[in-house]
Design goal:
single chain, alpha+beta, 5-stranded antiparallel sheet, 6 helices, 9 strands, 35% helix
């Protein structure tokens, strides 16, 4: 009886061992399959997704919807085009200003912020018995020009008043005909300084005349130094 019990016990242990080995083998196979599936999923490329529209297709052809679409113009439109976007080309072209118009506006609006070199008008000693004129021009696009200088006059070594006038072209033409009514500037002095502001220019130069006149027709010796300078508004 004991021998029979030992034999049954040994066979039960063998059966239990076989069952355990079978379970371990099954777990191993399942784990291997799961690992292979996970690896294949990792190697597969991601699926391409198709774009979608924010507008319902049934309303896509509605004029009200089409009019509400965003239209990009200006520098942002160029940036979007480089990035692959397609803004409304007709609107972008319509909003671009004409280069010709820009240039035309610049010709009339431009005023130079740079200072020109002084323009010499007269410098030195000369004699007059009637008058002497000096023509000078203000260049285009000049802002805040001034006629600045010093004058002294005498007759036989004695200071004597001389008349200084500043005129534009039309006034100078009247002066030559003896019909001058009122010049831009007029003053008499035997010695003194002049600092007279002239009008700025736009696209064309402007011509002026400095006239040194002897009102009494006395022979005078004049020492003068005048130039056009270009200052800032606060000078």
């Amino acid at each position: 009886m004991r021998n029979y019990f030992d034999l049954f016990k040994s066979r039960w242990r063998l059966l239990a061992g076989l069952v355990f080995l079978g379970f371990v083998a099954w777990v191993g196979v399942q784990g291997r399959n799961a690992w292979e599936n996970a690896w294949r999923t990792h190697l597969q490329p991601p699926k391409q997704t198709t774009g979608f529209s924010n507008i319902d297709p049934t309303f896509a052809k509605d004029p009200a919807i089409d009019a509400a679409k965003l239209k990009v113009i200006g520098p942002l439109a160029k940036t979007m085009q480089e990035a692959g976007a397609t803004p409304d080309s007709e609107s972008a072209e319509a909003e671009q200003p004409s280069l010709t118009n820009q240039n035309d506006a610049a010709r009339f609006d431009h005023v130079s912020h740079e200072r020109y070199a002084p323009v010499n008008v007269c410098r030195g000693r000369f004699g007059i018995s009637t008058s002497r004129s000096f023509r000078f021009q203000i260049p285009p696009h000049a802002s805040f020009p001034k006629l600045r200088g010093h004058i002294a006059s005498w007759s036989r070594g004695v200071p004597h008043p001389v008349e200084v006038l500043v005129m534009d072209e039309s006034q100078y033409a009247d002066f030559l005909r003896g019909a001058l009514e009122e010049p831009l500037f007029q003053n008499q002095m035997s010695a003194g300084d002049l600092d007279f502001r002239l009008n700025g220019t736009h696209t064309d130069a402007r011509t002026y005349y400095l006239v040194v006149n002897s009102p009494s027709r006395t022979s005078l010796t004049v020492q003068a130094k005048f130039a056009v300078v270009f200052d800032s508004p606060n000078d």
